[in-house]
Amino acid sequence: MEITQGVIDAHAQLVEMNAKTKAAIAAFYLRRRQRSVSAPLPRLVQVVPKGRNFFHLVDAYTDKVIGFRTGHRAACAAARDLERGAA
Fold first, then answer.
1. Calpha distance 83→44 (Å, rounded)
2. β-bridge partners, 58
3. Which partner from 9, 18, 39, 46 sits 20 to 30 angstroms from 3, CA to CA?
């Protein structure tokens, strides 16, 4: 089996792309770590139906129930207030 110049060039390109990929991944995780240290994630509240006209307010990051309301409009309003930090 003979190795041609095309195979050698393709291998060199793959090695270069692999190095760029590793550098990009390292930069991504470095930015992610710096962002998490410098600024906490904003609160994200999900409205989850749990019965007839009854809704849980769930923290999307921890999956913990942080409140409940009757009525969809009231639940959405409470979720918005919690996300803004008003409540």
1. 6
2. 46, 65
3. 18
